[in-house]
Design a protein that fits this description.
This protein has seven helices and seven strands. The protein is an alpha+beta fold. The longest helix has 22 residues.
Length: 261
């Protein structure tokens, strides 16, 4: 977990350098890399893909952009070299991209993702220009209502929230490490802006286990509830008295091993 509030200089972290499976939260990194490589000047097709990738968490769009930013010498294992260039420039040194095309099991840390939020929401042009930063924040502000849960919970209602979430259930296959079999990974990151707000929160979780005999989605729901409990506590302490946002409870995803959102 990593939290920062720029106006007060408040920071709070816990295991912020621990690596977690990214699931779809890596899509924010793909967006940053695309904007970095294109100087903010996206084609009509790239703009459409980026919008679907962030606002709808569309996996096909993410895969297309991942390949565009990769070395295609082996199309079955696209090496995301141009995404790595962005990570290097952004100082996100603990993020490890999957070099065989399975972007959802890239390794991310709360600290690196907080750096990404600071880049998107800041005024420093050294990594991304103002047009690129505004574009990224706008897309994260337009995420569909069913995916605005997580690190937005409890955020002051007079703030503007920008969010990207991710979830992934690992399969029970023998090739998956015992630690991960059937495990739900649930992640959320959000930035608050507007009305003098300038804050960011990243919460990454794993081992959201499903009790034996219970529906698979219970692990996913438990992960969301854990993130939102922490999120509300942080915002309540930082912004006492502010009326907090209550996200819609999302519809559980279909119980599909290794499904990524």
């Amino acid at each position: 977990m990593s939290f920062y509030d720029r106006p007060t200089g408040t920071t709070c972290t816990a295991d912020a350098d621990k690596q977690y499976d990214s699931a779809s939260i890596v899509k924010a990194i793909i967006l940053g890399a695309l904007l970095y490589q294109k100087g903010g000047n996206l084609t009509e097709t790239e703009d459409s893909l980026a919008r679907k990738m962030i606002t709808e968490s569309d996996n096909g769009s993410a895969t297309t952009l991942w390949k565009e930013l990769s070395d295609q010498q082996d199309p079955e294992k696209p090496n995301p070299v141009r995404i790595q260039e962005f990570l290097d420039k952004a100082g996100m040194g603990n993020t490890v991209l999957d070099k065989e095309g399975s972007w959802g099991i890239s390794q991310v840390t709360a600290d690196d993702l907080a750096k990404l939020l600071r880049i998107f929401s800041g005024n420093d042009d050294s990594v991304l220009g103002s047009t690129s930063r505004s574009y990224a924040m706008d897309l994260m502000n337009r995420v569909q209502s069913t995916q605005r849960w997580g690190a937005t919970a409890g955020a002051p209602l007079d703030s503007m929230t920008h969010v990207k979430n991710g979830w992934l259930q690992r399969s029970q296959n023998p090739d998956v490490e015992a630690f991960d079999r059937g495990d739900w990974k649930v992640n959320s990151m959000a930035a608050l802006t507007g009305n003098s707000y300038d804050a960011g929160l990243v919460v990454l979780t794993e081992n959201n286990r499903v009790p034996e005999g219970r529906p698979s989605e219970e692990g996913w729901d438990y992960g969301i509830e854990s993130i939102e409990t922490l999120s509300r506590a942080i915002y309540r302490d930082i912004y006492p008295g502010a009326e907090g946002y209550t996200p819609d409870r999302p519809t559980p995803p279909a119980a599909q091993p290794s499904a990524t959102g």
